[in-house]
Amino acid sequence: MKCFWLLLLHGLLFFDTVSSKTHRHVFVVEDAPYTRLCKTKSILAVNGQFPGPTLYARRGDTMKVKVHNRAKDNITIHWHGVKQPRNPWSDGPEYITQCPIQPGDSFTYAVVLSTEEGTVWWHAHNDFARATVHGTIVVYPPRGSRYPFPRPFKEFVIVLGEWWVEDVNVVLKRAVESGGDFNKSDAYTINGQPGDFFPCSSNETFRLAVERGKTYLLRVVNAAMSAGLFLSVAHHRLTVVGSDGAYTKPYTSDYALVFPGETMDMLLTADQNPNPTGGLYYMAARAFDFLNTSNIDNITATAVVAYLPGSGGGGRPLLPPLPYYNDSNAATRFSFSLRGLWDKERRPVGLPNMFDERIVMTVSINELPCRHSSCAGPNGTRLAASLNNISFANPSINILEAYCRCVRGDYGVNFPTMPPYYFNFTADDQPQNLLWTRRATEVKAVEYGRKLEVVFQGTSLVQGESHPMHLHGYSFYVVGWGFGNFDKWRDPLGYNLKDPPFKNTVGVPRNGWVAIRFTANNPGVWYLHCHLERHLIWGMDTVLIVKDGPSPWVQFVSY
Ligand code: C2O
Ligand code: CU
């Protein structure tokens, strides 16, 4: 029997079992009519809400979420950033750990929190459903313990999202059938609202009512599908204190950059004099690294920070400056300034000083040949994406089940640990023959306890872009990054092994690389992919199978 997921020892590592609690929730997934940008359409929503319900728990708690599918389409839910120790069964990605929940069926997820503290989130993990099926998970410190920063007066959940006027299934279908790019969305949103610069929107712009002199905790989730977002509040600075369910050293900046899949906890102090704008300030979000349209204002989503009591000035809120959409330096300056909050009490658990294995992985956009060159990609090709030049094809039975039952799944275990060819990955022009990829279902299997380094190497093939790479089942330490090609002799000398941030999603800079480290101490079948939905659909994904440890099987989670 292969599925000995686990180790008692490992359990002790993850849990202080003292006071953890089990919460029960019911999610009904159903079609609901929503109106944005002057048009009404039917969207998939959980309990009728968009964004979906926020779940609250404390570190170490478990949530049992019963999901009823009352929609016409399949659904699965993933608990993004929840490590789910030894519990891949509830992780959610379709064809990786489960078959989707069919219309009329239900499925109960056990969402097992362990070391997470801060903000994580949940979202659908099949097709394009996560465009509207997503929400926040707030994880408070355990009872009797405090934030490592001054207690905020109040907190706000800020979910960044994206809206297509069209049915998202149509957007998906058109792209898949034509082989071309996805239609761009019509707006980014803050808590479901595009804000004042969009038609039929300003009455519902999200407002954060604040009192002068008070400090607020913003729990920001980027649930958008297509782009990282710069975020800023006019005349205010943001102090990041956590990201991806782990604390960071406080880092103060005029703007933040949040990639799809990332969360950022930040403090905002209402320290401005309410005049002369009537105490109104825009919070603004705009896409990074994604060419959209020439009119920059039209693509800026806004919310309003409103000082209470209002001074009655009635002026227009001030708009903050945001870095330009292609400002890679502003992007990396922010992202790679984050440091983990490690000290004597909170140690970077499982951070390998030396690794057992290094996996170098190119992260690329590619092309696939298309019959009669009739696809809508460049020169009639089909757009694709790959890791180490394998464009992942979904298996027909889910990998977790095939692996556990020792059924021959239709997947291979030969995911390469280095790129098939070394070339100048980030050169300005790339020859056509390097653009091609191949479709296959290859996973990477590792022994329990292996210390891994993974280097994500971006490439300029077809189009260089930044890629928010996300791993299920783990958080990892971001130990290094750079522009250009990774140099295995020189670059590791500059690694930060002292206080690297502990993340589950990291933006690989356009035409650059990122190095992460972690110990493979959570057995299971874990998805690894770019969190830009179009790239995932094009094949920028693979699976990490972490084998069982030596100890006997423990049925840890009851459903
Ligand atoms: Cu938030 Cu596999 O994703
Ligand atoms: Cu990507």
Automatic annotation (TrEMBL):
Signal peptide: 1-20
CDD domains: CuRO_1_LCC_plant, CuRO_2_LCC_plant, CuRO_3_LCC_plant
Recorded GO CC terms: apoplast
Listed EC numbers: 1.10.3.2
Keywords for this protein: Apoplast, Copper, Lignin degradation, Metal-binding, Oxidoreductase, Repeat, Secreted, Signal
Catalytic activity: 4 hydroquinone + O2 = 4 benzosemiquinone + 2 H2O
Cofactor: Cu cation
InterPro entries to which the protein is assigned, alphabetical: Cu-oxidase-like_N, Cu-oxidase_2nd, Cu-oxidase_C, Cu-oxidase_fam, Cu_oxidase_CS, Cu_oxidase_Cu_BS, Cupredoxin, CuRO_1_LCC
EC top class named in words: oxidoreductase
GO molecular function, one term: copper ion binding
Listed Pfam families: Cu-oxidase, Cu-oxidase_2, Cu-oxidase_3
First-listed, main subcellular location of the protein, grouped into a coarse class: secreted
Source domain of life: Eukaryota
BP terms from Gene Ontology: lignin catabolic process
Compartment(s) of residence: Secreted, Extracellular space, Apoplast
Cofactor: binding details: Binds 4 Cu cations per monomer.
Domain Plastocyanin-like: 30-142, 155-307, 416-548
Known role: Lignin degradation and detoxification of lignin-derived products.
Homology family: Belongs to the multicopper oxidase family.
PANTHER family cross-referenced by the UniProt entry: LACCASE-14 (PTHR11709:SF262), MULTI-COPPER OXIDASE (PTHR11709)
Protein name (database record): Laccase
This protein's encoding gene: LOC109715024
